[in-house]
UniProtKB/TrEMBL annotation:
The keyword Glycoprotein does not apply. One of its GO terms (molecular function) is SNARE binding. The lineage of its organism: Eukaryota, Metazoa, Chordata, Craniata, Vertebrata. It is found in: Cytoplasmic vesicle, Secretory vesicle. Gene3D superfamilies: 1.10.357.50, Exocyst complex component Sec6, C-terminal domain. As part of the exocyst, may play a role in regulated exocytosis of insulin granules. The keyword rRNA processing does not apply. This is Exocyst complex component 3-like protein. GO terms for biological process: exocyst localization; exocytosis. Interacts with EXOC2, EXOC4 and EXOC5; may be part of the exocyst. Coiled coil: none annotated. GO terms for cellular component: exocyst; transport vesicle.
Amino acid sequence: MSAEDEHAASPRDEEWPEAEKAEKLARGAALKWASGVFYRPEKLEGLGQYRSRETQRNSSIQSRLKSTVQSYLEGVSAGLEQLQLAAQEVQSVCQDLGAARWALLDSADGFQGLQQMRALKAEHVQLASVVQVLPQLFSVHEVFSHTLQLLRGQQLLEAHAELMMMEHLRDDILSQLHLRGLSSAQATVLSYFSGLQEINESLAKQLWDIVGSSLRLVREDPVLFVTAVRIIEREEKIDDTLLLEATFLPPGRPKGWRQKFYHVLQDTITGAHFHHARIDTNGPLLARHLAALQKDIVSELRVVKDLMVQCVPDHYNILSLCTATYHQALTSHLQEILREDLDKQALFLLLEWALRVYHSPDMMGHPDLLPEVDVSALGALMSPELVDQTERKYVVKVKASVLEWMQRTLDVEFKEWFRDEEPETDHQGFFQSALPVIVMQMLNENIQVASLITDSLQQKVYNMALEELEAFLGRLREALVQCGKEHQNDRTIPKYYVSYLLAMLNNNLALSSSVSSLHPDAARREVPASLRAALDRTQKKACQLLLEELLLDLQPLCLQLPSRKWLCGSQLISSMCEVIDKYAKNFSRVRKPLYTLLLMESELLVTSQYLRALMQKKMVCKSEEERGQLCDRLLQDATQLRELFCGLGVDQSQQSLEAVFALRELICLKDPALLSLEVLGFATKYPDISDEHISTLLDLRGDVSREVRHMVLEMMAQHPQVLPESYRPIFSTILVPAPELPFCLRKGKCA
């Protein structure tokens, strides 16, 4: 290619770089294809065929390209022609608009004359309107007077029609002034129509008086009430229309007389029943007040349901409104009453009335009110918190009453102790008194009464009853102790002290067996541990006083033990048996478990007193003969006492007198050298015995040397004993007298 050709091709290459790139790619592809096809010499023979075929193919492609370019050129030519026509039409329109503008400018003076005609026309329309209402304006005050006369004659519909006409006239004038911005003239119009205010107030007063007497009117003359409702509905429609237009709101609008109707009706209901002077909260008077409320509310709701509903539109929901009003007023009324300091009867009445009577068929669930009256959606008359608070107040009042009655019962009970008569007996001859019956009946009645209200109140009263019973048992024990002290000062007072203690044991047993019946749930009748412990303490205290009484009668006899006279033979144990037998006959007046307990405790007391007497260091055996006499006496005494208690019903295996027999074996042992083994066996059988007890018993023998004593005590120290759980202590209750100190001279050494 020449330099001129390269120079000529360069602008095209710069203008169409994509074409040059495409051409290079085509040449590269053709070269690759040719090298692939003609890579062997024998393939060159078909070169002419390939050339002719490619020539035909190129001719076909060029013809298609030419036809496509030709169609595009024809479309561009048609578009240029249309653009030229559009430009000519736009130029023509611009010329026409310019001519119209000059024509309008030439006729501007004529339009000013039309503006004056328009103003004159508007003024003419206004004057025509004024001329039309002039007769009505001149008769305004006359209409006012006539409307007031109609109101005085209770022609309410006619009076209201004239009132609406006058208000419409006034409002129309005010609206026109408002639209024209003549607000300064509105005051004059309002002054001219000032009589409307008096008519409005007079009509409203009569309407609210009618609404306030609606419950009576719907029974006697419903026409007047229906008239009032119709007037109220007219005013509501006017209010709605003016509020929808929202261009101009006349003075006094919206009147809202329907809402006022609701308020007046509600105030009438609450004022008639709940705005009295202070109510006497005394039980009977409060009961009469609640009964009157119940009767009046049911009666008035029946009137509303059967009569008033027919006199008002359905959307008033008058029955629901009245029901809700009564419900809310009662809620506030009960809260107001509960602020007073009420007694238990008043609190019970309020709880019963609010939780039971109110929803019962006698009141809101009355057949004549169902199913239209439904207070379930209005919530509880007393909130759960208020119910709980009231129940707690009631429990406090009941607790004070129970405490007073229990104390009075206790006082009466102990006054009877000082009578010259034995306590009463039941059909089996067991001593008893009315105390458990009175106490349980009082507690059970309060629990049963509480069950008429709610389960929660019943549970609260039940818990209170158990607490008060436990406290009562504490006061009972204190009274027993006080009575015991008085009896120790003078054993003739009370005369039948033992009998009344036995009656108290039977009473305590009766309380223990019947306290579980207080529980509201028969399947969960468990006595709390604290109350059972209080019952046990009361039983132990009565048993203790009885045993102290037995001890007082045994002590003069025990003081004579041991002695030479007793050793040689006496009726001392026979006298003790007589005392024990006398008490056993008294013990037979209590029920069997207590009788057995008293006998076993008496046997333990006799044994411990007998052993205590032997350990008082009153006697020391001086010879083997005296030890033999002591062994014989111990055997006779223990055998006589054992036979006595076996005859009374105490099994020999349960008797503690076996300790006397074991002690006898210790005394009867002839060889002191064997004492260590005998004492060890004795201590194993009676592990509560101490070194002091053993030392005292060895002293009683009178033949134990210091070495043997030391060996015995050392063996005991080497074999400490542990008390079994079921062991009944014998020696731990016996105090050994302290050893006597040797006589000392002043400023000298002890011998």
